[in-house]
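Subgroup meeting minutes
Present: P.N., E.W., G.H.
Scribe: E.W.

1. P.N. recapped why we're keeping a running log of single-chain structure predictions: easier to compare across weeks, and new members can see raw inputs and outputs side by side.
2. G.H. added today's entry (236 aa).
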Amino acid sequence: MSILSIVKLNISLKLRQLLPAQPCVLCGSMNHEGLWCKNCNHSLPYLSAPHCPVCALPTLHGEICGHCLTKPPAFGHTVAVFDYRFPLDQLIGQMKYHEQLAIAQAFAEKLTQRIDRIHLPDFVIAMPLHPAKLRSRGFNQAQLLAVPLADYFGISLLSNACQRLRDTASQTSLPWHQRHKNVRGAFSCDRNLSGTHVALVDDVMTTGASLNELASAVKKQGAKKISTWVVARAGK
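Output recorded in log:
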């Protein structure tokens, strides 16, 4: 960790101690820990079991899973903090649908603790929203995650390099077997990324279909290595 990163972390911790107690967004108890209290933090489903380094699904000894061996995705590595289950799913819902945007900053801080600082990417790209959905929601939660991550590590954030071409149906509203078809060809990228390492940021990876399609668009622009950084990974 760089000296600048340590300073940022220390300042953040000191500011939290100076701030008045606030209600935990999960249980409502007053605390100085941040958006959620220490007890609720311990109850969160941190991804701690061995998992595939490519897609983050559980494997016996942390080896690459059979699916990634037989049909490798366009990305080569995934960093995830949580399993996507209760009560983490409640926090994701509050961030996305109830405009508790400060949760994105807290999630980004959790991601910084898991990302390999030795092999940082050249660029960060947030999962893009279609303009119609962006107008409706008013913000892109992936962008809210990507901004503090890029700032913390001193990496360039490419905010307009990739676009979502179609206003696809929400992946969560579809059966798993339809999600790949739903996002096929949904993204384009117009930035020359030849020879670079790119990290794609999103809130949740379910089937990985959306991130795989975005990674494919990035790969077409010459990216040599593609990683995905997500808050949570949904199991099958």
